Amino acid sequence: MIGVAHDPWMPLLVALPATVACLLALCDRALPRRVVDVVAMLTVLGVTTGSVALLIGAGNGRSLTWLGGWHPKDGVGVGIAFVADPLSAGLCVLIGSLATCALLYSWHYVARGGTHFHALMLFFVAGMLGFVLSADLFDMIVFFELMGAAAYALTGIHIEDETAVEGGLNFGLVNSLGAYLSLTGLALLYARAGQLGLPQLGRLLPEHRVDVLVVVAFVLVLAGFLVKGALVPFHFWLADAHAVAPAPVCVMFSGVMVELGLYGAARISLVAFGGVLSEDTLRRTFVVLGLVTALLGAVMCLGQRHLKRLLAFSTIAHMGLFTIGFAALRADALTGVVLYVAGHAAVKAALFLLAGVLLDRHQSVDEGQLRGLGRGRWGEAALFFTAALGLAGLPPFGSGLGKAITEDGAALSFGHWVPALFVLVSALTGGSVLRFASHTYLGIGDRGEPETKAESPEDEEAESGAPRHTPATMTTSIVGLVAAGIVIGVLPGIRGFASAAAQRLLDTDGYASQLLDGGPATPLRHDPAAAWTGTGILLGIVAIALALAVAAAGLWQERLPWLRLGHPVMRRLHRLHTGHIGDYVAWLFAGLAALVLLVGLART
Amino acid sequence: MQVLAYLVAGYLVLVGAYGIVRSRHLVHAVVCLSISQSGTYVLLLAVGYQHSASAPVFGSTTRPNRHVVDPVVQAMTLTDIVVSATVTALLLALSVQINKRHGTVDPDELIALRG
Q1: Domains and CATH numbers, chain B
Q2: Which pTM was predicted?
Q3: Do B112 and A579 touch (CB under 8 A)?
Q4: Which residues of B touch A308 (CB under 8 A)?
Q5: More exposed terminus of chain A, fewer Cβ within 10 Å: N or C?
């Protein structure tokens, strides 16, 4: 039996990057650039090491600490707990690793301007770590805002670029409004329960009637996290922010920040609302969100010519798949989601960094303008194609394994349309990236209509005096990410950890009893489903074949006139993405109203 | 009395959001966001309010056994205000930059991110 390990050092993980960030911001321009690089790098390496130690310390169970030693007495407490279970500690490792890659890549990338970039990156990391470790609703929202503020600033860090500031503002306004709505929901919950710790809420809410207030509070609390998680119709900011943010920042956004939105929604729904909303209610609510998100993301991805927007919509589509996996509320599907998120983070980060390399060299990531310009760069092309195939779920990539396990598990909850949807979405998103790669690196396919400048977003200005050849630090981080994508799919130990993470997330009674009563951990089952299966590999290969077909159809679309039948739909969808802040907020409220109806109807 | 505070809170949140939807000026939109957020202050304070209770400061005149209003919501409101100040400052700075680069702060004329 595993008891609760008390780990008083846990807050240090958040305090370290925040402190270094403050010091770096204070020493702006007083320090040479290399010193700043080294200090920031050592800090994120320290965070990663600490996270790995946390993960090992938590083992299959949980370790926790009550900040300031405010322990609960007889199950009642006013203190705030930090909890590390395999999922939250694993996310900390992911945050640390991605930040390491991003900083390694930006060794040469963000060439100008003081210590702002590094300080903001460290604040961003601190905010995310605090968010995943916190077991208190108010704390989660505060850390959520901290990482949000750093993220808005990072998006608009090239302040001389007109689109970057606009993207940053859209991102900031919509996300802040989401966070304030979460706060409104939190106030309603506090009025009802008088406590804000997640496990306390989980125990106190069922003592009252389940009425409209609970449903409205649930939807409002989730608002901020759904906006961050870019679920349709709360997703509009994501493509704008990704199109304009520097590549290393996109790595953090797509790799982990967006997924944290789903993590927050999942943790809160299960622990705090598990007693008042039935599993079926949660299942129906989240599967609808996931389905709409996956389909819209995939279709929008197909229609993009701007590589970073294309990758952004692929992230939205994958968020839809992750949400469907979570909605199944089964340990096996969630194991798959954990692996899928990790595998997706690795290949998506590699693709964003490659986009950064292209942008650096050609001052554009537009498919039409880049046509054939990558010819002869075989190493880069190989990395691009490998990562694109990994995104589509090629075995043995971690994304492929995660996809296979998720679709298997979710099919048991929802039926056989799930694997079909997963294959379709993988093929559409992977195919779009493959089409871009073939255009750019092979120079094959139709020339397409010439790009009209006013229609497509401007890219951030490339760095002046950036080196023509790709520096070794950039290549190293890209190769490392692609390799990590494969390792996640191959190493059996990671599957065991993912299975433990999934079971601990669903074990909400154990969560409450360990935190509040100091009870023992519930024993874990061994999950034999977490492995490559024949069907999984077969479906992976089908997805790859379809992705190649999608890419080919995209390359030679002028010879396939029947493809034009889809154009009016695509145009209409594109027109919805107006880049207008007022529209985004209107969609946000329409989505919330729909969600209240959805949860209300699902309850009856 | 209590009901009025809740109504005001809901009204502020919604009217702020409506202001952003209809905004023709980014500074106006950012201020509307702050208005929306001030709804959360009112809501939090209304939740912790108790009739004829004093401020939660214990000293020679207020003994620990007296009725006081809930200090937790007040602490949350303060934290909230700090966060809001940061975010508002950041968004206003971005608005200034947008004005410099685009020459306009009307969301209807900012079309660089369309599509």
Answers
A1: 4-55+66-109 (1.10.287.3510)
A2: 0.93
A3: yes
A4: none
A5: C
